[in-house]
Amino acid sequence: MVMTEIIERKKRGEELTKEEIGFFIDGYCREEIPDYQASALLMAICLKGMSERETFQLTQAMLDSGKTLDLSSIPGIKCDKHSTGGVGDKTSLALLPLVASLGVKVAKMSGRGLGFTGGTLDKLESIPGMRISLSPSEFFATVKKVGLSIVGQNEELVLADKKLYALRDVTATVDSIPLIASSIMSKKLASGSDCILLDVKYGKGAFMSTKEEAEELAKLMVKIGDYFQRDTRAEITSMNQPLGLAIGNILEVVEAVETLQGKGPQDFVDLILHSGVTMLLQADVYSDPKKARAALIRNIENGKGLEVFKRFVQAQGGDVSYLDDLAKFPTALYSYEVHSVKNGYVKSIDAMELGLISMELGAGREKKGDSIDPTAGILLSRKVGQEVHKGDVLMTLYTERADRKELVGRALNAVEVSEEEVPVPPVVEELISLTPTKEFHIEKA
Is 13 helix (H, G, I), strand (E, B) or coil? Predict the structure, then answer.
């Protein structure tokens, strides 16, 4: 095959064959196809799109580019969960221990944060001693013993994705739904779980800006999962304001623990319960959603979800005393309160702007390799729909950097206050799955 002919065919909008897609992925991984030709094909895909068949075969080729995990030695149905990323998204820290406390086995590989989106691994590593690099045998043993393990991405899985993502990032070819879907799903499939729950976020603080784009991506990923015979479902969730009250690594760990203690912010609790019900149904632990929800609430109230979180942290070397006494976590040297300048109701909170501010406070990375300050971040005091009076604290900024006071004005401008009452928006808007006849079932939350 000739790479220029493949590029030309896609440039004309033609459907590539399985062999052509495999030739491209294999050749690029072997460094037989140069970056400039790979970039040309990626741009052609961005402009002309891919059929479902092409996307399935691209996912297969990427999956075949590395090793896959075999979780068959772990008894029971194994579930995985993936979020497309957002501001204040600490969902895995509370959701996964909670569902594990009810018998779901969760073997999860996560990533680090980049830009304004936080990474699960960075949050976990803010717990002293916590290890996120385990050998396969340690990983499997922890899932068997605790029901949950979260580790860093295995470099041997989906080799094509790492190379292609780096290239897409510098060639303006990130925002292609077939490329996004194949990237996410090839990694999820390689991780070996039997069922996958996808949290596809949209809004100002998310990668997908509109609900329509989020639905398109979610449906394609659900179809990819079905093609590979995995029970895959997707939630459409709003990121038009930060999730919960905490943004930043230690702040989010504390909020996750408090949520498992029954003291979490309502929007975060709503997401945990909705996602938890779906995972319990996928794992065949429950068949009745109402009973599943009741069981989740019960394991928050009786502390069993928190107990699994502690056992998971301890199994991976973390110091559990910090979870028993949250005051042990270090606090930032500087804090700045942001006060409302008028009376009214919070109409909107710009999640992306607060994510960028938190990055400048030290809670995120502008580029790979940047160090993170685990104490930095933002703690909100008001959410959309809540009443506020002039002088009330809207949020507090935390940082170790002495020259960040000017961020207070930006943070204030990120909050819009209206004189009229504002309804509290839902977090989960839809659950998308496939029926036995391969038709989409969209359940309004």
Answer: coil
- Among the listed residues 176, 190, 152, 198, the one whose alpha carbon sits nearest the alpha carbon of residue 61: 190
d(CA 234, CA 215): 9
Q: Report the chain (445 residues): mean pLDDT per 10 consecutive residues.
A: 94 96 95 95 95 97 93 92 90 97 93 63 93 90 95 85 85 89 94 95 87 96 96 95 95 97 97 97 96 98 98 97 97 96 96 92 73 92 97 96 89 96 94 92 87
* CA-based R_g, the chain, Å: 22
Q: Is 82 a catalytic residue?
A: yes
Q: Check 90, 187, 204, 311 and give the catalytic one.
A: 187
Structure tokens of 215?
């639905």
Helix 177-190 vs helix 159-169: crossing angle, to nearest 10: 150
The bridge status of strand 78-83 relative to strand 195-202 is parallel
Catalytic residue status for 133: no
Q: How many Å separate Cα 260 from the centre of its chain? A: 19
274 is catalytic: no
Q: Is 187 a catalytic residue?
A: yes
**Which listed residue (78, 168, 219, 233) is catalytic?**
168
Closest CA to 20 of 38, 48, 1: 1
CB 38 within 8 A of CB 24: yes
Catalytic residue among 81, 82, 188, 201: 82
Cβ-proximal residues to 378 (8 Å cutoff; 6+ apart), any chain? 242, 246, 247, 248, 251, 354, 357, 358, 361, 363, 395, 396, 397, 398, 411
DSSP 109-158: EE---BBTB--HHHHHHTSTT------HHHHHHHHHHHSEEEEEPPTTB-
Amino acid identity for residue 229 in this structure: Q
CA distance 128 to 359: 22
Flag whether the pTM goes above 0.90. Answer: yes
- Record the tokens describing residue 8, joined without a space: 């030309």
Question: Which H or E element spans position 97?
Answer: helix 91-100
**What token pair was written down for 359?**
């990055």
Q: Active site residue: 64, 161, 194, 267, which one?
A: 161
Helix, strand, coil fractions of the chain, as percent rounded to 5: 45, 20, 35
Burial degree of 209 (CB within 10 A; 0-12, 13-18, 19+): middle
Catalytic residue among 176, 183, 193, 358: 183
H helix count then E strand count, the chain:
17, 14
Q: Provide the 8-state DSSP code for 67.
A: B
